[in-house]
Structures are given as C-alpha cells and as structure tokens.
Automatic annotation (TrEMBL):
Record carries keyword Disulfide bond: no
Protein name: Polymerase delta-interacting protein 2
Keyword Signal applies: no
Recorded GO MF terms: DNA binding
Pfam (any one): YccV-like
Entries under NCBIfam families matching the protein: PRK05461.1
Biological process according to GO: DNA repair; error-free translesion synthesis
Keyword annotations from UniProtKB, A to Z: DNA damage, DNA repair, Mitochondrion, Nucleus, Phosphoprotein, Transit peptide
Classification of source organism: Eukaryota, Metazoa, Chordata, Craniata, Vertebrata
Length: 376
C-alpha cells in the first residue's frame, strides 16, 4: 500500500486532533500525537516499509492557520536501505519537516564518538578532548534545495542559508549566502513523488532541474546544475562529519573550508561549520552558553564564551527536538582545531555541559579561484 505524504500544521490546540482519520492512506499507518510530533508508524506499509523507520521523529514545518491541519504533497516511496537517492528525488525532512529536492550526493567520513565501527579510516583525538581514537565510516549526505514556502516555518529551528561563500573580491570578511540550500543525511530523507511539474518553489529549481516524465525520478539535472557543481565543488564539498552525545544531547558538526584571503600583508583562512543539536530524550532543556577552544597551527589558542548561539537560546523538547545553525571562523594559519562545550539548563534550574566533538580545520592543498556563484 502506498502512502500519501502529509504535512501537519503547528497548532497550539493540536492535541484535540489525536488519532485523526481521513482518506489519505498515510493516516492509516501513522498515529497523530499532540503538539508537533508525528510518531513512528504503527502499521506496516508493504510498499514502503513504514514500520521499519527506526526511532525517527517526524516533524512538521508548517505553521498554518487553525482549522487547516493537513496538506497532501504527494505519495511516499520506499526508503532506500541500500544505495543512494538520485538527482531530482523529492523528500520530506524527517526532523525539520520541510519539502526539498535532491541536487546531488556527497560521500563523507562520519566520525561518531558514540560508536566504534570497523573502518579503515580513523582520526586520533588531537585536541586534548580525551584519548579516544575515533573510527571513520563512509556515509551519504545530499545537497538539496528547500521549498521556500517552508523556510519561514523552520526559521526558529534551522537556518535556511546553510551555505556561504567568500565574496568575489578582496574584502577578507565579505560573505554571501545561498538561501534555501542544505546538507541532508541519508536517514533524514523521506522520499515521495508528486504529479506536479514544479513541486518545489525555489528560485534555482527550474534553472537547475527539468521535468522529464519518462524518468524516475521525473526531474533531471540541467547543464547549469552540472556546471555549477563542477565550478563550486571545492567550496560545497562535504568530507568529514563529527558526532558525539552527552546526556542524551547529540551534537553533529560539519566543517567546510571556504578559502584564503590576504589582509594586511597576512593570509586569512576561512571555514564555516554547521552544527545540529538533537535532544534524544523526552526532557525539556535549553541551551544557555557556548564555550569554544580554537587552536591555530600558528600556535595560538583562543577561548570564546558567550550566551546561546547565533543570538538564540533554543529550547529542545520532545515536540521540537532539534536545532541547526551555521557559523564561521578564520585563522591566520592553514589549519587548526576546534572543540568545546554547550551549557544546557534543565527545567529544575540545574545545568550540565554537552561536549562538542573536536574537529579539524584543514585548508585545501592548492589555491583555487573564488566560487563562481549561481545563475541569476
């Protein structure tokens, strides 16, 4: 049985809609819970194996007017347990709930400090954050476009301008962002199909993709997407992912090298890093402070403390378990390390520290021209 992909509004009175029934076939397999939470499927769909989702929490990104609860967007497809999703695959994000479409995959090394899988790659802890050697395992991520209709409704939980570049001039601090571009892990993809020829609203959708009804998925890459990927590959490429869990708060860090600029007769190397915080428990906690240690190959060690992150002190709860943001760091050396802690507060007023997994800041081995931007 195929299942209709359903979007749910974020209603303060949503609890009265528990166990809602309607003609959409997905509802026969999913229990609606109060607040924002769509719980794991309770029945098996023979076509897509919905009951095989493991501990996945389905979050909506819609903040719709009261009385408008559900919005069909398409038909769920089977999850890919093996292999990767292709360019043009439509999906819902299993955590943040937005609609998106896959542009192309990245194969990254995942360094998970919570597990020690057998792998050929490993990284010793060079940042003084414990002596544990971390094994690396190859994992698939995807470059995706986010539907702009959903961006306003996830802005409190996830930045929708996750990809930034150095500008095409000599100002070493000038950055520009590509809105609605994200990196998504394979397990966060809930694939679906749609009969719409333009199912995703984004300024780059029709510049990067074309409707090809004879193909599966029916959206294929234009030459502009291939050219853009090739020209910007060094600045887009995702190579390492770092993950660690402390007291049921999981921190995932993805660093990106952005390039080098000259400033006041010295070289300044730039990186961006994307961080996702996930509450794996039912407790409500709030991020209060950050504490960073930044080591440069030049021999400097900088300490940064401050309230919250990117001007926010996000609350992580069962209903809204995750928060994602991006930031930047510059060094006057081609490499370094970052590590630290986030201080969280419980509802009883007690505090605890959550470790940020140490990660390397590595520059590319050869100089490259600035990124080529995207078609306007």
């Amino acid at each position: 049985m195929a299942a209709c992909a359903i979007r749910r509004g974020l209603l303060s009175t949503a609890s009265k809609y528990n166990n809602l029934k309607c003609t959409h076939r997905l509802l026969s397999a999913i229990e609606f819970n109060s607040g924002l939470d769509l719980k794991r499927p309770q029945a098996l769909c023979s076509a897509c194996g919905l009951s095989s989702f493991q501990q996945t929490r389905f979050m909506s990104s819609r903040n719709r007017a009261e009385g408008k609860i559900l919005e069909p967007v398409g038909v769920f497809e089977a999850l890919k347990q093996h292999g990767k999703y292709e360019t043009g695959q439509l999906f819902l994000h299993s955590i943040f709930g937005y609609r998106g479409i896959v542009l192309f995959p990245w194969h990254a090394r995942l360094y998970d400090r919570d597990v020690s899988p057998a792998a050929t790659d490993s990284k010793p802890d060079t940042a003084g954050h414990g002596s544990k050697e971390v094994k690396g395992k190859m994992h698939t991520y995807y470059q995706v476009l986010i539907d702009t209709r959903d961006c306003p409704h996830i802005s409190q939980r996830s930045q929708t301008e996750a990809v930034t570049f150095l500008a095409n001039h000599d100002d070493s601090r000038a950055l520009y962002a590509i809105p609605g571009l994200d990196y998504v892990s394979h397990e966060d993809i809930l694939p679906y199909n749609s009969t719409e020829q333009v199912p995703i609203q984004h300024e780059l959708f029709e510049r990067f993709l074309m409707f090809s009804p004879s193909k599966n998925p029916p959206f294929t890459a234009r030459d502009t997407l291939r050219a853009w990927q090739e020209k910007n590959h060094p600045w887009l490429e995702l190579s390492d992912v770092h993950r660690e869990t402390t007291e049921n708060i999981r921190v995932t860090v993805i660093p990106f090298y952005m390039g080098m600029r000259e400033a006041q007769n010295s070289h300044v190397y730039w990186w961006r890093y994307c961080i996702r915080l996930e509450n794996l428990s039912n407790d409500v906690v709030q991020l209060r402070e950050r504490h960073w240690r930044i080591f440069s190959l030049s021999g400097t060690l900088e300490t940064v403390r401050g309230r919250g992150v990117v001007g926010k002190e996000p609350v992580l709860s069962r209903e809204q378990p995750a928060f994602q943001y991006s930031s930047h760091v510059s060094l006057q050396a081609p490499s370094g390390h970052m590590w630290g802690t986030f201080c969280f507060e419980r509802t009883d007023g007690s505090h605890f520290d959550v470790r940020i997994p140490p990660f390397s800041l590595e520059s590319n081995k050869y100089d490259k021209a600035p990124p080529a931007g995207y078609p306007l």
